[in-house]
Amino acid sequence: MNPELGQVALILALLLSGLQCVLPIVGAWRGSRPLMATARSLAIGQFVFVALAFGILMWSFWIDDFSVAYVAQNSNLALPWFYKLSAVWGAHEGSLLLWMLILNGWTLALVVFGGKLPEAFFSRVIGVLGFVAFGFLLYMITTSNPFLRQFPISANGADLNPVLQDPGLVFHPPTLYMGYVGFSVAFAFAIASLLGGELKSTWVRWARPWTNVAWGFLTLGIVAGSAWAYYELGWGGWWFWDPVENASFMPWLIGAALIHAQAITDKRDGLRAWTLLLSIFGFAFSLLGTFLVRSGLLTSVHAFAFAPARGVFILVYLAVVVGGSLLLYALRAPKVTGGKSFALASRETLMVIGNLMLTVACAMVLLGTLYPLVGEALDIGRISVGPPYFGPLFLILMAPLVLALPFGPLSRWGKADLKVWRNALIRIVALAVAAGIIGFILGARGWYQLLGITAAVWVVAGVLLFAIKRWREAPRGKRYPFEMLGMMMAHFGIGVFIAGAILTTSMSVEQDVSMKPGASVDVGGYGFHFNGVTETQGPNYRAQQGTVMITRNGKPVVTLHPQKRTYVGGQVQTEAAISAGVFRDLYVSLGDAIGDGAWSLRVYDKPFVRWIWGGGVLMMLGGFAVILDKRFRLKRAVEPEAVRAQPEPETPRKWAEGEA
Amino acid sequence: MNEVARKPIARFVPLIVFAALIAFFVVGLAWNQTHDARFVPSPLIDKPAPAFRLPRLNDPTQFVTRADMLGKPYLLNVFASWCFACGDEHPTLMAYRDKFGIPLIGYDYKDAPQDARAWLQRHGDPYHEVITDQSGETAINFGVYGAPETYLIDAKGVIRYKHIGPLTPDVIAKELEPKIRALEQAGT
Amino acid sequence: MKRLLIIMIMALALALSAAAFAIDPLPFRDTAQRDRFQHLTRELRCMVCQDESLLSSNADFAKQLRRQIFDMMQQGKSDNEIKDWLVARYSTFILYDPPLAPSTIALWFGTPAILLAGGIVVVVLLRRRTRPAGMIAEDPGDDW
Asked: How far is CA B88 from CA A215, B12, B148, C4, C13, in A?
């Protein structure tokens, strides 16, 4: 009877979320402390029931309960236990339950860590999250119930798709959802401020740590997905501009813009309306991504199985949540523009330009992703939009951002010291050109490789120059506050990423070869020696395993064992063998027996490919580091007065709480 | 220093753009209900069928060419013994083979002739004639990318209609038969 | 029924993929020709496994088309000629690089248009909100 308990738990969670989206908000509106106090208990209660439902589903997988249709569709007696557990989120219904669990996790975190927020504001935030949860739970219960039973009970399940039988499934969806769903917190803060008519921008400072963590997790989730695709799919690619990948990249771009806009609003009280709008957009794109993946509208290997009701419901949900927010924004966004003035040459201007490029890049990705649907709907023929569109356009749009990147930190708020800019420019140009020349001497050829080197050094030099300047000029003990450290790490990560992405794309070598046992081929200065194929067995598959020994200058480096697996369900899967290195990966995929004892193999030399993910991880760490800054510690709960518009003086304001 | 309030209309722009996006998705979902996105419309409609010269399944020494087929419209059905969906389509073809009013030619795609013969023997042969394309090279010229696929070719050798996926009575009634009627009336 | 069709085609694709893999040694003349081949086939969509490129797809169809493209390259055909040949048979759907045509004007010019619009907004914003540097007060409190 366990699975039915799961259904009951979800329904109870639904009821609680319904109360959660009403009572605290009414309480805040009416100033009723008892009503506002319900927020915490309702949030905790909802978390308990959703966690219970999730636990029950996981339990059903653990004990191979094939009476539950979802388990039967996605699991198998022979499936290793860790994949049984992660199969919970391997398909549509379970992934929604994971989404819900994570939403509740974030809400719980707010209850635990947000205790010092003003009560009315806090209640509104929890209320908004309750509204988000309510819609999602309703969606799950009505169209995507993971606890449906199927009789007669099959003796064995269908098996998890072999592509998903991989550590990537354990990491990628949960971290990705932490990011996606985490943007709901920034969203809730923004809506709460609109509901409450907040004029002061203190709420932005409160929102910043939450937004940074969400963005950090999203970065990690995307990196995990990219790395997973790289070694799982067998052809050395790490980004395909696939519609579902784009669905995760768009919120990432908005998130990156948002954390910078929040900084401006927090410190200079500027761009208030834009920060509000971006906060809404961030979560809107998360929801949009969720919609696109399950709507059946996109051709993608990632897309979940489609049913019409699911697509329609999420569209309605999207329309209500985002449409409602944008309406609220239109009606109640601060009409008075304010904030400290700034000169044309200033950090604010550079960050505005950065925001512009990130937002336009997001719009470009949206346009390209949706355009094939336009072609279908308007019957103008089937058009495909792929990497040849997204790649060059993204590069062009990011160019101004990369150029400006070193100068942002070097500028002051309000007005930049042009002498500093000029000196920095000279040094950075010199370093970038020198790096290009050194690269050329070391063997880099082609404008694209040189671009990669110079752009990466441009960014990294900027970070280093800033670090040195800061070291010289700031007093001891206050040299690198965490916020600044985070910024430096993240920007440094961008440089590393640029190097990795451009160099791997332009320098990779890929070769299909046919080899008899004993033959060898030379790729990228390494010798690949093929030693034949043997049969092996895994827990739920049989495999043909090749042995390839790699040598450099005659000395053995590593032995790789690429496999071709046939799973219990009949699916065939290539498992590439990779020798990972800091500066290059060597990669071998096994093909077919061609006859005469010969086999086809694909051999790759992929320089700097790990830098792509290394850069991403640095960006994530930077995002996480920022929140440790003492700026974000709330000293005590304060009620901000809902004061009507008053002229704001030019002198620096001391915020009531948390002034460093 | 405060600025004068911006024109409120600008605040509504994001909402309006978003509403347009939602409307677009509604159209998209509706389209999805009636179309299968995997089936790509053929660029060869109303263009001459490619020239071909393929052996007959039952007598590989004899060949059928496009020129041989001129003068009368006919249906070309791409199938193979390894194709699951062709098995699905098969009863429909058996039922309709004489109801079409025009010859039904089987196009055995990337199949060993003995496998095709065995398959037809086992399930029945709805075709008036079967030609084989073992290598699949000619099929590329037709824009074939899977089986089953069905072409309606008119008396002048021009492709008038292509259906991807199994033929169903529904598709035949709604799409194929009207096209055949139209050809008969036009006298082509 | 439509669901069934999708499953059937998927099964077809799987049946085909078991037979051959994307790994396909071809006798390239030199590295340049190999690079050209890889670049070209990466930009073409496999019609059977529609979310994969011709270079990476395991489908038998993809293998056949790769051979065809290789032959055409050996015959001296240019990339554009090869693409035209494929589009005549499989429509523009096979190209990952959307051609510049009346149907794709919004696609190719949409982004510059958005950039322009955004740029205008930013310029207007900056003109309204910025002050000459001399008028900005020194703000030592806001160090970072």
From this structure: 49, 53, 10, 10, 16
Determine the residue among A415, A449, A505, A603 to mutate to test chain C binding: the one whose Cβ has the most chain C Cβ atoms within 10 Å.
A415
**pLDDT digits 0-9 by tens, A413-466:** 888 889 999 999 999 999 999 999 999 999 888 999 999 999 999 999 999 999
Contacts with B170 from chain C: Cβ below 8 Å: 1
What domains appear along chain C, each with residue ranges and CATH number?
2-98 (1.10.8.640)
Residue B85 lies in a domain: yes
Share of chain C above pLDDT 90, in %: 57
Q: Encoding tokens for residue C123?
A: 């310029």
Nearest Cα to Cα of residue A504 among A227, A222, A175: A227
CATH number of the domain where residue B119 is located: 3.40.30.10
Q: Which of A111-125, A339-353, A487-501, A559-573 has the highest mean pLDDT?
A: A487-501
Domain membership flag for residue B79: yes
Instruction: Answer yes or no: is B117 within a domain.
Output: yes
Q: Least CB-CB distance to A383: which of C14, C92, C137?
A: C92
- B128: in domain: yes
For chain C, which chains pass the contact test of at least 3 CB pairs under 8 Å? A, B
- Model confidence band, residue A280 (pLDDT cutoffs 50, 70, 90): very high
Enter the DSSP assignment of A345.
Answer: S
From B125, B132, B112, B181, select the one nearest B152 (Cα to Cα).
B181
Reported ipTM: 0.87
Instruction: Give the percent of chain A with pLDDT over 70.
Output: 95
Beta-carbon neighbour count of residue A353 at 10 Å? 18
- Tally of domains in chain B: 1
Domains of chain A: 1-161 (no CATH), 166-334+346-404 (no CATH), 409-507+613-626 (no CATH), 509-609 (2.60.98)
More confident site: A125 or A115: A125
Where would I find the beta strands (DSSP E) of A114-221?
none
pLDDT classification of A543: cutoffs 50, 70, 90: very high
Of chain B residues 34-93, which have a CB less than 8 A from chain A?
35, 37-38, 40-41
Residue B174 sits in which domain range?
Answer: 53-186
| Whole-number pLDDT of residue C20 | 47
- At B33, give phi and psi (nearest 5°): -65, -30
Distances in Å between the Cα of A380 and the Cα atoms of A383, A545, B151 are 8, 48, 21
Structure tokens belonging to residue A535: 């049969």
Residue of A301, A331, A376, A379 to mutate, testing the B interface (most B Cβ within 10 Å of its Cβ)? A376
Task: Report the distance separating Cα A314 and Cα B110, nearest Å.
Answer: 43
Q: Which helix (H) or strand (E) holds A636?
A: none
Q: Write out residues 17-56 of C within 8 Å (CB-CB) of A.
A: 17-18, 20-26, 34, 38, 42-43, 45, 50-53, 55-56
pLDDT-wise least confident of A119-133, A399-413, A626-640: A626-640
pTM of the model: 0.92
